[in-house]
Amino acid sequence: MEAQGVPKSLCTLTMHNGPVMVVRWASNGKWLASGSDDTLVMIWDLDPNGGGKVWGSDDINIEGWKALRRLTGHESDVVDCAWAPDDRYLASVGLDSRIFIWCGYTLECVRRLDGHQGFVKGVCWDPVGEFLATQSDDKSVKIWRSTDWTLQATVTKPFETSPGSAFYNRLSWSPDASYLCASNAMNNNGAVFVAAVIERDTWNSNMSLVGHENTVE
């Protein structure tokens, strides 16, 4: 921060070859993951000897963040990614309808999850790391068990009358992991835009957050 409290740019990361769709810090603050429509997930690490000029610009980087690893496997835009609470895994999703699980230590792919029939646009770990939730344009949320990557549940009811597509389908768990809130849902036969609140274990959605006048993303 500047002395006057004005935010200061520390570094510009320039290795992607397309628009960057998502960035996520690991909870330990060591690594940063980014996903782009160039199909790549990039892992960035702080280089204590870095810094210098920004490529293609006259700007100067105060900190030096280097591309530690390029994670390949997606065949289309990477729309979202999420670190497990203990950073043991990184999950990434995209417009190839695939979910990739990467080891948070070696950064190798440990599993690919298939099951969605449309673009996957949201992914979120529950706070205790037991379940991974994904949401797709196929009008479903899928719950995956992280111990063996089996499909625990598929939730469809809140999304049956939702718009066919949205830019994103972001999800969020409550801090105590009791509820999962999902976007792009509808009430009253498609008349009311809502965020659906899904109860853990039963995976029922009997509550909605109402107030938006267009698609919740």
List the helices and strands and how they pair.
Blueprint: E1 20-25, E2 31-36, E3 41-47, E4 52-53, E5 60-61, E6 64-71, E7 78-83, E8 89-94, E9 99-103, E10 109-113, E11 120-125, E12 131-136, E13 140-145, E14 151-155, E15 171-173, E16 179-187, E17 192-199, E18 207-210
Structural key phrases:
0% helix, 4-stranded antiparallel beta sheet, repeat, chromatin regulator, Methylamine Dehydrogenase, Chain H, 18 strands, 217 residues, mainly beta, globular
How would you portray this structure in words?
With 217 residues, the chain is an all-beta fold. It has a domain at 20-165: YVTN repeat-like/Quinoprotein amine dehydrogenase (Methylamine Dehydrogenase, Chain H, 7 Propeller). 0% of the residues lie in helices and 46% in strands. The chain is built from no helices and 18 strands. The strands form 5 sheets. The chain has a 4-stranded antiparallel sheet, with no helix packed on it. Strands 7-8-9-10 form a 4-stranded antiparallel sheet, with no helix packed on it. Strands 11-12-13-14 form a 4-stranded antiparallel sheet, with no helix packed on it. A hairpin with a 4-residue loop joins strand 16 (179-187) and strand 17 (192-199). It starts with 19 loop residues before the first strand and ends in a 7-residue tail after the last strand. The mean pLDDT is 90. It is found in: Nucleus. Belongs to the WD repeat HIR1 family. Residues 9-157 form the CAF1B/HIR1 beta-propeller domain. One of its GO terms (biological process) is chromatin remodeling. Its main location: nucleus.
